[in-house]
Every structure is written in structure tokens, then in C-alpha cells.
Amino acid sequence: MAKDMATPDTDTGIFTRRESEARSYCRGIPTLFASASGSVMRGADGSEHIDFLAGCSSLNYGHNDPDMKAALIEHISGDGIAHGLDLHTTTKAAFLQAFETHILAPRGMDHCVMFTGPTGANAVEAAMKIARKVTGRTNIVAFTNGFHGVTMGALAATGNGYHRGGAGMETQGVTRVPFDDYAKGLDSAALLDQMLSDNSGGIDAPAAIMMETVQGEGGLNAASAEFVKAVAEIAKRHGALLILDDIQAGCGRTGKFFSFEEMGVMPDLVPMAKSVSGFGLPLAMVLVRPQHDVFGPAEHNGTFRGNTHAFVTARVAIEKFWSDKAFEAELAQKAALIETRLTELADMIPGAYLKGRGLMRGVDVGGGELAGAICKRAFQGGLIIETSGNEDQVVKVLAPLTTPTDLLSRGFDILLDAARDVLATKIAAE
Fold first, then answer.
1. What is the Cα 389 distance to its own chain's centre?
2. CDD domains under this entry (predicted)?
3. 313-334: pLDDT as tens digits
């Protein structure tokens, strides 16, 4: 008898039999999910979990925002373009108009928008290629604990040895230097400037200096405004372009649309992805200063450069959340709540401390085993949350920015209860 397609299949054996061992998040979050709305995910077994992962910041506006969903359904039901290569479409025009009006123009940004393949790594690859073409140089300066993707060019700029080990060959074209506050007492910006200024400093003249202002996968290391501004000045002084990777830290995650706002810098190139679509649909792009818009037609190619369905939802996201300052004000209040509750967590654990900025925050608990145990127990209590850092030692909060305050508080209650349980078990075992 044919299976009733309206009845969810709760058998997860197919994943073990057929899905590659490269699968990751599902190992620590083993529920078979069937639906989601706002900041709650629901399993096929009827279970509910508050989502503090948000698609690794790809769902900044939550699951299935009703206005974006309605616009997308209307577009599809009206035979709107589903795939348009890089042709002119009404949906792309509407997105670009909204992005220009509500994002670029108010911030004094003259950048062109280059649509790349649909992943953040593809946007990073494009940015690196542009910098190399503009300057005629090949070297890219990146930073310790940076994460920019796992395709070959982006992987060379990624610090994590586990991911670089997956390349199967040597990665090239990148010089890595210490990030802000990487080593106690070290002025990393001054060191970089000195090495670039010294003919025997050992760093080839760079095409670009690339960084995240908050290193998401690297452990929520947040650069100071002074450091970011110093790096921007160093890039200019040494003839390099400044690439600020806002793939995870952008779209409001740090409290402003861009993570570098109010830092006194104007990047040459800004790779963006994750929450650009607003709906979890694949969409990536690079913001490019006009003088650096040097690619010829299709020189950085891709069949899916620009996702027409994502243009529909992205336009709604911008108009709904960024047409005035109300959303930013709401984010500031939530950021304060997050800091207060994470301080409670840090106070439970000797030596633990807060990391990150805005709504991209976490607590370094000192070790990956403890952080993993806390997240596992929190999941059992109804909260989806993950770790980050070079040793997975940071309990990392990436709740949807739209999470209602009461639900946000409930999520933290689960997290703090989980930490108490884990610590009590640990003490009992000792």
C-alpha cells in the first residue's frame, strides 16, 4: 500500500543508509523536524524546540515570516519567474530598489551589487578574485580563527585546521596574521603594519586584507572599532583592498544591518549571504565599490547567480524591518537582555566569560566537552543551541532577531537549567 504523503515519516534510518558522513548539525540535534514558525521548530513526533541556532544566522527574521511567505506564494501562484540567470526581472529590480533606498543610500554607500553563486563561500571567492584582478597581486591577508568558507580559495583564508585538512591538497595565496586580542599584550594591527612596511617582513604585498568584525565560527571573537579602523588604514596605506566578510555578522546580527556600521570604515568589498534572502533561501552577493567593479560579463559565472524567489522575500525583509529605526531599537533591547542572561551563565562557571557583540553572543566555558554537554542537555530540555570556537568551547547564541522577549527568556531559562544540571553532575562525579 502506498504511503500516505500527508503522514510524516518518523523513520530516520534513511539518513544513516544514504546520507553522506559529511552531515554535521544533525548529529547533535537528532530530531526529525517537520515544520517551524517564528523561533520554534517542531518535530514529526510533535516535539517543539526553541531555536537559538537560526540556520547559523540564515534565519535572522525567524522561520516562515508571514509577510515574506505571502509574497512568495503570490509570486509562485502568479507564474512569476522561478529562474532567471542574471536576466533583468521585475523581482530583481524591486529588490535592488529596496536595497538602494533603505540600506545603501542611508549609509552613504556607493557600492554596486554583484550576485554570485548562492553560497557565502562563492561570495568570498568572488571578492578575493576581484581584489587580485584590481591590484595585480595574489596574496590575501587573513586572520587567525577566521572562517570564510570551505571552497578552495575561501578555505585558504579559513583558519580552522580541521576544515583546511579536508582540501586534500595545499591551500595557497593567503598569509595569516593575529586577529585583534589574539595574544595578550600584542598590538596585532601595529604588527601587521610593521611587517608590511619591512622589506624583510616576509609578507608579499597583499591584494586585500579580509576579516570578519565578529568571528562567528572562530569563537565569537569581536574586533574593536579601533582595530577595524586601523586595519582599514593599513590596507589603504599599502595599496590593498579591504574585504569585510559580513556573511554571518550582517543583516542585523550585531544590532545594525552591517557589523561595521559606526566604526568609521568604508570597505571596498562586502561578501554577504545567509540572511540576505530573509527567508532561508539561498542568495549571496558582493557589494563592490564602483572603481573596483572590474569583472567582464560572466567572468565570475554561475547558473544560480541570483535567486529570483529569494529576491521576493529579501525585498519584503528590507521594507519590513529596515525602512525605519524601530527594528534597530528593538534589537538594542534584546541585546541587553541576552547580555544579562549570558552573564548569569558565565557567573556559574569559574573562568567563563562573555564573547561577541549585539545579538551574536556566547560564553566561553573553558572547554569543548563542557560546552557540548550544556548544549546537549539544553536540547533535551527543548532548546536548539550550538557551540563554536577553535575547541568548540563557546556556547553560542544565534536566536532569530525577531524572537519575542518572553520566548527569548524561556530559551535562556532552559539554557541555564541545562548548565546547572551539567555542572551538578560534573561535581557529583568528582
1. 14
2. OAT_like
3. 999 999 999 999 999 999 999 9
28-57+326-429 — its CATH code?
A: 3.90.1150.10
d(CA 367, CA 25): 19
Quote the crossing angle between the two packed helices 368-380 and 405-429, to the nearest 10°.
120
Which letter, b or e, does each residue of 219-258 get, where b requires 16 or more Cβ atoms within 10 Å of its Cβ? bbbbbeeebbbbbbebbeebebbbbbbbbbbbbbbbbbbb
Q: What is the pLDDT of residues 122-143, one digit of tens each?
A: 999 999 999 999 999 999 999 9
Q: Distance between CA 348 and CA 420 in Å, rounded? A: 8
Q: CA-based Rg of the chain, rounded to a whole angstrom? A: 22
Domain at 66-323, CATH class:
alpha beta
57 vs 46: CA distance, rounded Å:
25
| Whether pTM exceeds 0.85 | yes
| pLDDT tens digits, 176-201 | 999 999 999 999 999 999 999 999 99
Neighbours of 168 (CB within 10 A): 5
3-state SS track over 62-104: CECCHHHHHHHHHHHHCCCCCCCCCCCCHHHHHHHHHHHHHHH
**DSSP state string for 4-58:** -TTSPP---HHHHHHS-TT--HHHH----EEEEEBTEEEETTS-EEEESSHHHHT
